[in-house]
Amino acid sequence: MQVMQLVREITDWTNQFPWLEMLSSLGILLFTAYASNFVAKKIVIQGIRKVLSKLPAARNSVLVNYHVIQRFANVVPALIILNGIDSVPHLTTKIVYLLQMLAQAWIFFSITRTISELLNVFHALYQRKPTAHNRPIKGYLQLVKLMLFIICALMILGTFLKKDVFNLLAGFGAMATVLMLVFQNTILSLVASVQISSYDMIRIGDWIEMPSLNADGDVIDMSLHTITVQNFDKTITTIPTNKLITDTFKNWRIVRAENVRRIKRSIYIDQSSVRFMTPDELNRLKQFLLLHLYLDKKESEISEFNQNLVDQSEYNQRRLTNLGTFRAYVEFYLKQNQHIAQKELLIVRQMQPTSTGLPLEIYAFTNTAIWVEYEAIQSDIFDHLIAILPEFQLKIYQAPTLP
């Protein structure tokens, strides 16, 4: 009886101060919302996480790393405020309506974030598939997220304006031109993403080269708006997705797939050192194992040609040149080199003479695409060729130095 009497006295006293009754009731409601949020996140969610972490299934590890349940738990305090704000006495109708609208807006936003996190989980599970590396879906998921948040914003706006979402969408039809301008980059990026995925133009891990944007490295991320490239100097270049459709770029994927890489480099010969070879020089070069059969064949061919000449003068006769012999030696040398892909195209050709010498170009493919090994093979080949040039009485062109 004494307790009931005390309660009546407290009630009678608080009735004399309406603002105190309102604040106490509001405090109780906020405390209840906070307590429910604490119980949901710290007790329920943590318990679910511990259970999932102990399960042997592989997919559960993905759920543990994401905050799907935690995002959805934010709905609980908003629901308590939404349904309990009416019980707070002495609040004006406008304040009650405003708080209910804010709670409802928070519910919409929390549900949208939950769906967005579910999409992240789906993307993580998709990444485990073998085909995910060749067909990334990150850009499409970003587009879905963008549409979700736009719908969420319209629902929140419709809640405050007391209008249906579909009526708001109909009203936005007149703003289509403005929206096209605002989301121009997003639309262009979406079209580019579809084309890139359809034609398999780029995959994560591809080595691409795009000089116009100073990009030269491996693709490490593909999203709706950007392609991220880690350059070989460890810098990061971000390329707008639509630039890959409008601008030119080079993809080295097939080089890595075929495990071959092209050598295309020239040795610039001093043209004044090119001349006919004497018989003694030919006999000396026959000691080269690679040239013995070639020289015998060419001498027989030249001898037969010269015998059929009407004018047997020295100037009309064919003779071997040191440059032609060296060109044949380079070709034989490359065909014997175990680091050269013999099934690929191999050419040793003389290019158009220039003011800096006569280019002798080597066009071949190494049997490895690894950058370090490729450079070592290429350097070894040209080291040998430059060192053996004097044996053919040839010189490399070098610009004369000023006195």
TrEMBL record:
BP GO annotations: cellular response to osmotic stress
Membrane-traversing stretches: 20-40, 143-161, 167-194
UniProt GO cellular component terms: plasma membrane
Record-level Gene Ontology MF annotations: mechanosensitive monoatomic ion channel activity
Annotated PANTHER family: MINICONDUCTANCE MECHANOSENSITIVE CHANNEL YBDG
High-level lineage: Bacteria, Pseudomonadati, Pseudomonadota, Gammaproteobacteria, Moraxellales
Keyword Transmembrane: yes
Classification via InterPro entries: LSM_dom_sf, MscS_beta-dom_sf, MscS_channel_2nd, YbdG
Protein name (database record): Miniconductance mechanosensitive channel
Keyword Nucleus included in the entry's annotation: no
Domain Mechanosensitive ion channel MscS: from-to ranges: 185-253
Annotated localization: Membrane
Keyword line: Membrane, Transmembrane, Transmembrane helix
Pfam families per UniProt: MS_channel_2nd (PF00924)
